[in-house]
Amino acid sequence: ETENNVTVSVAPVPGGGEKMEVRGRGELQLGILIENLRREGFELCVSPPQVIMSKDEQGNTMEPVEEVTVDVDTEHSGLVIDGLTGDRRGSLVEMKDSGSGKSRLVFHVPSR
């Protein structure tokens, strides 16, 4: 699969016997890989996906962040801001009035 799909990587787990660690760009992509392996006759035990964290030069934990752009009626922009900055822990990066009662909101939101 890694020969056909460069966004998937497979590596053995050290000391894990037959265990393999599979990395991909999302649950859908990994779900397709799992289904293809089952159709080919493989039996699998799959653990829940995990977010890959990394450390910066100072040792601070960094996590993947996505840029989210939302075009919304200006009267509803407060609800969108509350939703993405509250539970999702995103930060509002940019807010533009697009005219005709619309606003464009740009957020940076953790992927998890």
UniProtKB/TrEMBL annotation:
<protein>
    <recommendedName>
        <fullName>Elongation factor EFG domain-containing protein</fullName>
    </recommendedName>
</protein>
<feature type="region of interest" description="Disordered">
    <location>
        <begin position="93"/>
        <end position="112"/>
    </location>
</feature>
<dbReference type="Pfam" id="PF00679">
    <property type="entry name" value="EFG_C"/>
</dbReference>
<dbReference type="InterPro" id="IPR000640">
    <property type="entry name" value="EFG_V-like"/>
</dbReference>
<feature type="domain" description="Elongation factor EFG">
    <location>
        <begin position="61"/>
        <end position="112"/>
    </location>
</feature>
<dbReference type="InterPro" id="IPR035647">
    <property type="entry name" value="EFG_III/V"/>
</dbReference>
